[in-house]
Amino acid sequence: MFNCSFKGRYDTASASATNVAAGTLTLSAGDLMLRASMSDAIFSTGPSFSDLSFSVEKPGAFSIDYDLSEKDFEFQFMNTVNVLEKPLHLAYTHAKGKNRTFLDGTLVLSGVNKVLASYALDSGNCKLKYTRVRGPTTFEPSYDTAIKSWDLAVSQKFWDDCVLKASYKTSSKVLGLDWTMKGKPSGAYKISASLNLLEGLQVPKLTAESTWNFDM
What we know:
Helix content is 0%, strand content 71%. The protein is mainly beta. The chain has a domain of 70 residues. A 16-stranded antiparallel beta barrel has the order 1-2-3-4-5-6-7-8-9-10-11-12-13-14-15-16. This is Outer envelope pore protein 24 chloroplastic-like.
């Protein structure tokens, strides 16, 4: 079975707005998932393609990705263990060419609480995030040990298909607002606005995205 996903993005962050597209083609082959993806295909000044990648994945076990543009392999191994009767999802990721290794963990404390950690073995940097779901509202404070800064994101769900998310990054003083809506019968739409408070009052930078999913 084939699954195809296509995303278009219109960005006003640069001096001249750009139109960017991304696409993913996924094939289910028994326990394995074969995937080809492309991102950052720019059409505003003529077609320009980059970030082509291919991957083989066994969900919950391992994935192997090959970045064609950078000629780099990335390996990821996944497992789940129990810690005090709580599931801990682990992922070990190594990028061969960049020589970067990460260890990610998600501890599910309950149906509404979980703690996420990402540790870079090469640099020793660690990022921590706590997620709490309270009805239609989700709180996500996070801390980056490398730059010693806190970030905060709050999401509010409206109906069954609309989510409004506000975020603030203390390190860069960037305030963000995202509105996401699921389309019918498949796909999604997203409108984002960001404002750098260090630059004073100005017109927010806007981004519009649309995603379509097809099963064949």
